Amino acid sequence: MEIVHRGAEAEIRRGCWLGREVIIKSRVPKNYRHADLDRSLRASRTRNEARLLHEARQLGVPTPIIYDIDGVTAEITMEDIRGRRVKDELRDASGERVDELCREIGRLIALLHRGGIVHGDLTTSNMIVADGRMWFIDFSLGARGAMLEEMGVDLHLLKEGFQSAHSTILDRFPVILGSYGQHFERAPEVIKKMREIEGRGRYT
Ligand SMILES: Nc1ncnc2c1ncn2[C@@H]1O[C@H](COP(=O)(O)OP(=O)(O)OP(=O)(O)O)[C@@H](O)[C@H]1O
Ligand SMILES: [Mg+2]
């Protein structure tokens, strides 16, 4: 089986499931945690991520289909989204395409937030373009029943990531916010929160 990615918490590999090519995300055991706690943390994070992937899809945000969840091995077997990370796509894109991608980022975040879901790790590495659509992945830090503050944090983290990964097109960040505002009635309050959070960072 081919390892696609090895992160701090999870390992991603390509595999085969009922004759289908799939992605398997496993949460690796951490031996600095007590074994029982480690097992229950990995199981609950796996369930949380699988549930959010599914609920986001119901809100109209393209996410991989889940084929299987295994709490014991802390594995999610899901659809392989074969495309490019938005991070790479944005780097090669020209003016109009950049704006198109930014509008789609804003629209999808609006759909999530409108449904009360925060992603928790909004970076352009956790977005993929494939089949003429944009997909969101990696909901491991996400939550439901989100408050304004958490939504503000989502936007704040996105902006921070944008500042480091896409510094040459920073002037396009407002396109994301503009589109977010067109699709979510509470956007002004969330954007205000985002600015407040930015301000906190500056003075501490
Ligand atoms: N369903 C999928 N289809 C295609 N590629 C995927 C899929 N899920 C994950 N990947 C690839 O694996 C990478 C890491 O996956 P993911 O973001 O879910 O893990 P991670 O939690 O970020 O790992 P880390 O612990 O480093 O944060 C993604 O950036 C993407 O390239
Ligand atoms: Mg990720």
Short descriptors:
204 residues; alpha+beta; Phosphorylase Kinase, domain 1; Transferase(Phosphotransferase), domain 1; 2 domains; five-stranded antiparallel sheet; 8 strands; globular; binds magnesium ion
Your description of this structure?
The chain has helices spanning 35-58, 86-92, 95-114, 148-165, 173-183, 187-203; strands at residues 2-6, 10-17, 20-27, 66-70, 75-79, 84-85, 127-130, 133-136. Helix 3 (95-114) packs across helix 5 and helix 4 packs across helix 6 (187-203). It is α+β, with helices and mostly antiparallel strands and 204 residues long. The strands form 2 sheets. The protein has a 5-stranded antiparallel β-sheet, with helices on one face. A 3-stranded antiparallel β-sheet has the order 6-7-8. A hairpin with a 3-residue loop joins strand 1 and strand 2 (10-17). The chain has 6 helices and 8 strands; from the N terminus they run E-E-E-H-E-E-E-H-H-E-E-H-H-H. The chain has 2 domains: 2-79, 2-Layer Sandwich (Phosphorylase Kinase, domain 1); 84-203, Orthogonal Bundle (Transferase(Phosphotransferase), domain 1), CATH 1.10.510.10. The longest helix is centred in the N-terminal third of the chain and has 24 residues, at 35-58. Helices cover 48% and strands 20% of the residues. The termini are far apart. The structure holds adenosine-5'-triphosphate and magnesium ion. Magnesium ion binds at residues 125-126, 138.
